[in-house]
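Our collaborator T.R. sent over the components below with a one-line note: 'Predict the complex.' Nothing else. No constraints on interfaces, no templates requested, no preferences about which chain binds where. So this is a plain run: every listed entity goes in together, and whatever single assembly comes back becomes the starting point for the next discussion.
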Amino acid sequence: MTQQHSGWWRDAVIYQVYPRSFADGNGDGMGDLAGIRSRLPYLRDLGVDAVWLSPFYASPQADGGYDVADYRAIDPMFGTLPDAEALVHDAHDLGLRVIVDVVPNHSSDQHEWFKRALKEGPGSALRERYHFLPGKGADGELPPNDWESIFGGPAWTRVTDPDGQPGDWYLHLFAPEQPDLNWEHPAVADEFRSILRFWLDLGVDGFRVDVAHGLVKAEGLPDIGGDGDQLKLLGNDVMPFFDQDGVHEIYRSWRRILDEYPGERIAVAEAWTPTVERTAHYVRPDELHQAFNFQYLGTHWDAAELRGVIDVSLGAMRPVGAPATWVLSNHDVTRHATRFANPAGLGTQLRAAGDRELGLRRARAATLLMLALPGSAYLYQGEELGLPDVTDLPDEVRQDPSFWRASGQDGFRDGCRVPIPWTVEGESYGFGAGGSWLPQPEGWGELSVAAQTGDPDSTLELYRGALAVRRAHPALGAGDAVSWLEAPEGVLAFERPGGFVCTANTTDQDVRIPVAGRQLLGTDQVLVEDGEAVLPPDSTVWWGV
Ligand code: GLC
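Returned assembly:
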């Protein structure tokens, strides 16, 4: 059984599984629940506390399952409801908690509500659960406002009414197959409270809330204006469709539901907000438990920048009493081993492989730094193998809807979704017995779990070692502050309770510092000369003092 201790999530290391790409149990080339279930012991041995599963619900897969047609059903491609129950049960037996994705901003266009809304035509009560509006222009031929889809193109699609005539437009902040729900409608709020209960009753330990910042739109859906380059604005401003204050009432009602259940069920917000201070609003004591720290994810491998974002993150969370969170990779961004292989400043959606050796070295150092910080850390499947993005996927195999809608600015999310290599050789390198839905590159097997297991220099063993130390010394993830130590330019050094010092050299040169203690773990073996430690370029070391 899962251990019951207070605040388990405050310093938890949570491993994201993207079900399509983790492990394929039935040999159809697509990952599934049976595959995940069979690999749970691997996750237990890795040393994580919880698993977050990206969506496995019934879905036409227009956006990798983030287009849900039935929130209470498992897509047959992933298995059945009994498979989900068995997975949760097995995970708990192994001491792992399970967090599932909930996608409340939009449904699939194949959801029963939306299908009926279209079929019943104008005046259908179901249309009020989405954002249907007449177009502008003489014949309604122009979208109702100037909003753009995050995936490129207008955020509106015009429907054809049952009589064959062009009708109203509906809002979709993402793909046209993902119509936005109208959260002003009480039936929508009721339905999601019921969906939460459904999964909590099944035993899940919490939720990752997709597009948590998007549910409420500014009254009247006002135009944004400007030069039309909305995607650039997203980073800096509160948009009329994102981070509206009204979302918080929703999360207060969700928190009351979570608190009704035993065992500390939690929710983590995927909330892209302009500042960490605004992110902190989502984790006030009566709202959600955690929010992803995307400012950290976007930070370059640079000591001064890292220190700045660490301080700001801890400072923003402290007043609301929520743990800081840390994340370097997920299913939406280029893996950090590839981001750090490229010059800084290119963003988080890259097509270039860059200098792989450099990228891996920095990625390992960045991870070890992250795991020494107070709070909770999120890992994305495959990062423990040091996987890079697959940057040369041919266009015809790509499935990311934004690739097809964007005008070159992004859309490369398939590169971080290539199925995981488990074995050195064999069909899809042990992913399954029937190929893999995205092609795996040649040599993928050299990065496999089997190839790295037992090799003390491997990235997998580095992760295992770091997580073991973190488990043995809970002080490492506890608290809400770090004590910075003096360090040369380009080097971070900080102390953690329980006799730990972490040093990270972000420069491309050896840097000498006074010996900080006994080397517990590091990306490299550090040479000690005359009382000085020589930190190699792009390295992190944990010291016991
Ligand atoms: C979130 C998901 C992403 C998805 C989008 C729309 O950002 O992480 O994968 O495309 O929401 O649901």
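Summary for T.R.: The first strand starts at residue 13 and ends at 17.
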